[in-house]
TrEMBL record:
Role according to the record: Acts on ADP-mannose and ADP-glucose as well as ADP-ribose. Prevents glycogen biosynthesis. The reaction catalyzed by this enzyme is a limiting step of the gluconeogenic process.
Reactions the enzyme catalyzes: ADP-D-ribose + H2O = D-ribose 5-phosphate + AMP + 2 H(+)
Protein name, entry field: ADP-ribose pyrophosphatase
Domain Nudix hydrolase as annotated: residue spans: 51-189
Native species: Cellvibrio zantedeschiae
PANTHER family: ADP-RIBOSE PYROPHOSPHATASE, UDP/ADP-SUGAR PYROPHOSPHATASE
Gene field: nudF
Amino acid sequence: MIKKPQFNRDDVEVLGRETLYKRFFRVERISLRHKLFKGGWSQSIGREIFLRGNAVAVVLYDPVHDLIGLVEQFRIGAMGEENGPWCYEVVAGMVEEGEQPEEVARRELVEEANITPYHLEFICNFLSSPGGSDEKLFLFCGLSDLSQAGGVHGLPDENEDIHLHCFAADEVFAELLNGRFNNAAALICLQWLQMNRERLRKAHVKE
């Protein structure tokens, strides 16, 4: 049995905070100290943190036609990638204040893929890079009829240019670990789908 961590938030003392940058995202420098495994407290430590907030990501799956929907779009962080800065991803978006993750999942599916799922299944949540960011992603699988899906979507006022592709599941899984799906949310969603594919098909495909 995996025990809970020895320490919690009460075992950290924040000594000061300074905002270094604030626009759409925020960067802060935090001075703190925390309890040590060998006893006592650490010295004062300075850490920069990228405050991004919560986000949602959804992998689209059609269990009847055994299709997976992925979106392709330009990503500035992938400029140095061998395959270029256009990435295959799952649908994703930021959680605004007062919103629930499932609400965001449904909204983003309409905006980025013009899809309304007939079922949403929660997968998990995870911290994308806890060493330097507070971002937490909530992952879902959106079951939909993808037989006629595709095309270019997104919000023009946000400069979104998002191309929805639908692939045979076997084709996606054959390419899963070759670097084409080079982001954590897509990899986690697709590996979950690979493990749950037969269960979803049995539950949603009529004989």
